[in-house]
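TL;DR need structure tokens for one chain.
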Amino acid sequence: MEKLFNTDNYVYFALMTPIEGSWGFTSYTGADGNYVRAIQGQNINGTFKSYDVFWSAQERVRRVPKGKKITVIKDGEQVMMLEVDYIRNSPNCEGSKNNAIGHSIIFKEIDEAKDAGLLLSRRKRKNDALTASFGLEGKELDDVAAALGIFQEDPLIKQNRVSEYAGQDPEGFFKHYENPNRRIKALILKGLHIGKLTKTGDAIFWGKEALGGNEDQAISYLISNPEKLQGLEESIGVVQTIPNKKKK
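>> reply
TL;DR here they are.
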């Protein structure tokens, strides 16, 4: 008989705070001031390998076996501890006994009866990001791709990479997808990519003219100066359509 997956054997921890990209920890300090660190063996030089508690950009819920024990350095000594207890005691976990030391609450242990909606919303957010990415085409696809740092010419490759990003990091995708200044941001990044614009530190230049001390300032400047925006769009459009000429 096929063995069925038993969710009762696991504890689930979900990120609560919208975070772009991945997040995790390798150690923490308890309310009593003691440093706690999980390890997994030693390196060749004798130092300990850290045991990472990690949420990827794609998986926002971490599943932990209830009976799994890990090695922890606590009060300078190595002890065995249930991984679920190690994670529960993190100052960043909601309800942790170590919350009193002022850390931000970033994740929580899931109570399935109470938090089923949270789990579903995480999955729905990912599906929504994928659906939005699949619906992009033409100039809209170009702008979102450029905002994500994707400059492939082939539209299928471009859409594939955008949808991959959306699936791995829904919050990061929507940050750019819903940005009201997405078109101008994309224009600036395209300009930098093809060398029409340059950067000195964070400052962005069009030739010798400074558009702003950073990307946000450059966007504000172009919004306030529509003739400059139009000129930059025409300039970058000309650069992108001129074919390479072979030298005679």
